[in-house]
Amino acid sequence: MARKYLFLILCIGVCSQNRLQSQNIIPQPVSIATENGSLGFDSNLPVILDDNDQEQKRMEPHITNLYESLGVKVLSSPNANGAALRLINNKQANTKLGNEGYLLDINSMGISISANAFGGYFNALQTLKQLLPVNPSNNRIALPFLSIEDYPRFGWRGLMLDVSRHFFSVEDVKRYINQMVQYKFNVFHWHLTDDEGWRIEIKSLPKLTSVGAWRVERIGSFGEGRVFPKPGEKATYGGFYTHEQIKDVIAYAKERNVTVVPEIDMPGHCMAVLAAYPELSVNKTPKFVNPGSKFSEWYGDGTFKMLIENTLDPTNEKVYEFAEKVMTEVATLFPGEYIHMGGDECYKGYWEESKDVQAFMKKNKIKDVHDLQSYFVKRIEKIVKAKGKKLIGWDEILEGELPSDATVMSWRGMKGGIEAAHKGHKVVMSPTTFAYLDYTQGDRSVETNIYADLSLEKSYEFEPVPDGVNPSLILGGQANLWTEAIPHLDYAMYMTYPRALATSESLWTPASSKNWKKFVHRVEHHFDRFDNQQTTICKAIYDPVIQVKKKEDGNYLSLKSDVEGAEIRYSTDNTYPLERAALYNTEFRLPEGKYLLRTQLFRQGKPIGRMLTIPIDELIKRAK
Ligand code: ACM
Q: Which end of the chain is more exposed for a tag (fewer CB within 10 A), N or C?
């Protein structure tokens, strides 16, 4: 054992505030037993770890960072009472803990963290950070005596970031990863390619990035508001990651217990590929990288039409040569076991209309375009497998017959995942219904309007194992951040949190320990942590939740608060402020007239959230 002489200057005293921190951990640990007494930081706290244990050695920079963040000087002499922060390798691996679980004990001898592997030590440190005061440098530090046993419910706890619709720098991506690991996520799904930009250097196909990574600059809402490139207009918006940058991100993630899963979306979502290599499409006409202009029509029942070709031609051998080159470099770069091939929302109209494609299908006894997609998926799976990797794709890859060892990521609700599991495939649940972070999270009057809504409460209802499904086939789950409406990292954080906290708890904590009311209470505490890190997140739980019900004699308004101890006040007479406005207690019929509803939450007479202001006409449109 070596003593690392990193020391905290410790404050004497028991801070009861800090005892409460043990009730605020997210995700909720499997078990916490608190005991009387506190570890007062009144001297120094050496770190004791085994220099010969590589898993423990990897913790050194993280422990050093933690100590530094506490704003105390590093001293050079050991403390007298023997208390220390100790990392202990479970001599007989506690199988319950696996590679990511841990035991964390705080007592008069200091802090001890026992784990089987790096992931366990790392996760324990995240818990320890949450036990510390929000802003330790301004506080006296005293940790309550306690004993935590903790391990994850699922091995796949992911967040996906779409870097195609908007480009995020390496620094942004690292910040995103650094934030997610604080809540024990362990998979970073990197959506690297789409119609709006190809973001990964492929040395053998240089035009993918010299052409495919750049588009004309447009701002604002995707769709109607973004006009197509004008003749001769320069493509100036975009970017891509070099091999060196990708290796850097992977190494950064690895040292935070995160596996990076790259997604190369095929055969649809390929407009950026076709801008670079139009010969890979059926019609071979020139294309451009889409700047977010509307190029598809959606019919409300899940069917759609792409007005510009964005699919690869699955009958063209050159497409498989392309895929071979891409997957060779991707497999070499990414050490994880999975490569994600996308496979979603592939419009098949151009295949249907092509005589050559139809002739190919006839010759190869492929009965329809869905089977043709299945033919494509199987060819890609072979390529991926030959590189020693496993294939994962969105649930559309289930169309036709899917190779048995392919894994399905279920996004169109849970049904794709259920069907896949019934067929014996492994599944990652990532349904729009609970896990789409691009959806509007608060009231539409104060948030960006996306085509669907997802509140924190709904996110928290995520249960990845549906009834009747073999739980061993559910690897876990993931929340996805599509970035059509997210131009920069600050907004990515706002849209991700706090909903990702709900996802993290659904994926880590035993289902029987989940409790919405207690969770919301803990989320409030974490708002302070985000504030302290200067990360602005969505506090929509401080806004009233509005519901309008259509009844026989008119439209009824009901208001709700997600947080406890809040008063809901409102006005329907066009007046504000609301400090002394009517106190809401039960639903009421909306009066007739031309007015704005104003409503806001208060605690002890002080506003805690935003004032929502909604015209009566708009409210009536919401009536259900
Ligand atoms: C998806 O949301 N198209 C996977």
A: C
pLDDT tens digit string along 113-151? 999 999 999 999 999 999 998 877 655 678 999 999 999
CATH number of the domain within which 116 lies: 3.30.379.10
The DSSP H or E segment spanning 612 is strand 612-615
Give residue-wise pLDDT tens across range 491-547. Answer: 999 999 999 999 999 999 999 999 999 999 999 999 999 999 999 999 999 999 999
CA of 485 to the centre of ligand 1 (A): 15
| Catalytic residue selected from 150, 194, 201, 329 | 194
Q: For ligand 1, say whether the CB of 394 is within 6 Å of any of its atoms.
A: yes
Considering the chain, what is the average pLDDT of its residues? 93
Nearest atom in ligand 1 to 411's CA: 4
Number of domains in the chain: 3
440 pLDDT higher than 90 = yes
**623, two tokens:** 């009536």
Ligand 1 center from residue 343 Cα (angstroms):
9
**Residue located nearest, by CA, to atom 2 of ligand 1:** 411
Q: For residue range 325-375, list pLDDT tens digits in order.
A: 999 999 999 999 999 999 999 999 999 999 999 999 999 999 999 999 999
Q: Residue 214: which CATH number? A: 3.20.20.80
Structural domain harbouring 604: 543-621
Distance CA 275, CA 285 (A): 9
Question: Does a structural domain hold residue 538?
Answer: no
Q: Which pLDDT does position 78 carry in this prediction?
A: 46
Going from the Cα of 299 to the center of ligand 1, the distance in angstroms, rounded, reads 16
Q: What tens digit of pLDDT does each residue of 403-424 get?
A: 889 999 999 999 999 999 999 9
Listed in order, strand segments (DSSP E) in 346-426 are 390-394, 407-410
The ligand 1 atom nearest the CA atom of 436: 2
Judge if 217 and 137 occupy the same domain: no
Instruction: Give the whole-angstrom CA distance, residue 20 versus residue 16.
Output: 7
- pLDDT recorded at residue 476: 98
Q: How far is the CA of 455 from the centre of ligand 1 (A)?
A: 19
- Name the closest-CA residue to atom 3, ligand 1: 344
146 and 160 assigned to the same domain: no
* pLDDT interval class at 67 (50, 70, 90): confident
From the list 166, 189, 269, 340, the catalytic residue is 269
Mutate to test the pocket of ligand 1, among 222, 304, 394 (most ligand atoms within 8 A of CB): 394
Give the sign of the dihedral formed by CA 441, CA 442, CA 445, CA 446.
negative
* Atom number of ligand 1 nearest to Cα 409: 4
Q: Is 194 a catalytic residue?
A: yes
The predicted pLDDT at position 81 comes to 65
Ligand 1 centre to CA of 167 (Å) is: 18
The whole-number pLDDT of residue 18 equals: 55
Kindly give the distance from the C-alpha atom of residue 482 to the centroid of ligand 1, in angstroms, as a whole number: 8
Most informative mutation of 344, 414, 433 for ligand 1 (most atoms within 8 A of CB): 344
Cis omega (within 30 of 0) for bond into 335? no
Strand segments (E) across 121-230: 142-150, 156-162, 187-191, 193-194, 197-198, 214-215
Return the half-sphere exposure (C-beta side, CA atoms, 13 A cut-off) of residue 447. 25
Does the pTM of the predicted model rise above 0.85?
A: yes
**Of 131, 150, 169, which residue constitutes the final position of a domain?**
150
Which residue in 162, 329, 345, 438 is the catalytic one?
Answer: 345
Please give the pLDDT value at position 91.
78
Q: Please check whether residues 520 and 552 belong to one and the same domain.
A: no
* HEC readout, 214-261: EECCCCCCCECCCCCCCCCCCCCEECCECHHHHHHHHHHHHCCCCEEE
DSSP collapsed to 3 states, 19-35: HHHCCCCCCCCCEEEEE
